[in-house]
Each structure stands twice: as structure tokens, then as C-alpha cells.
């Protein structure tokens, strides 16, 4: 039972990049490198975007003066 589950998961889940490489006629190692690099790049772009937004909010807070509302008086 365990072997059947392991064989099924290896065939259907871990063989995805190999199937794509066979379909497009690309070497499997090249496609795996591209996949890994894109995964790290998208992860890094999320952090870079976060820090850019943080910087612009910091700049906005430096120049925008918060005034009391008329209703607070």
C-alpha cells in the first residue's frame, strides 16, 4: 500500500518538470534551474516591493503634516 502511494506521487507530482521539458524539447536540468531561479526571484521581488512601499510611506509621513480636525476642538 505504501509503495503504491509512493509510486503514484512520484509519477504524478515529482515528474511535472520532466514532462514539461519533454513536451517543449528542453533539457530537464535547464528547466529546473529556471524554475528555481524564478521562484527565488518572485520571493525576492515581494520583499523589494514591500520595502519600496515602506520607504514611500515614510517619506509621505515626513512631509504631510497631520492637522487636528475641526471636530476635535
E-strand count: 0
Helical run tally: 3
Q: Tell me, rounded to a whole number, the average pLDDT.
A: 85
Give Rg in angstroms.
25 Å
Approximate shape: elongated
Low-confidence stretches: none
Biggest beta sheet attributes = none
Give the SSE string. HHH
Sheet/helix structural class: mainly alpha
Helix content: over 70%
Distance between the termini: 75 Å
Strand content: under 5%
Q: What is the total number of structural domains? A: 1
Written account of the structure:
- This protein has one domain.
- The protein is 77% helix and 0% strand.
- It is built from 3 helices and no strands.
- It comes from Faecalibacter macacae.
- This is PspC family transcriptional regulator.
- Keywords: Membrane, Transmembrane, Transmembrane helix.
Keywords:
73 residues, mainly alpha, 0% strand, elongated
What's the helix and strand layout?
Blueprint: H1 2-12, H2 16-24, H3 28-63
Short recap of the structure:
By secondary structure, the chain is mostly helical.
Amino acid at each position: 500500500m505504501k509503495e503504491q502511494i509512493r509510486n503514484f506521487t512520484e509519477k504524478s507530482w515529482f515528474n511535472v518538470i520532466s514532462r514539461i521539458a519533454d513536451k517543449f524539447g528542453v533539457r530537464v536540468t535547464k528547466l529546473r534551474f529556471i524554475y528555481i531561479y524564478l521562484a527565488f526571484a518572485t520571493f525576492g521581488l515581494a520583499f523589494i516591493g514591500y520595502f519600496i512601499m515602506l520607504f514611500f510611506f515614510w517619506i509621505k509621513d515626513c512631509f504631510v503634516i497631520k492637522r487636528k480636525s475641526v471636530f476635535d476642538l
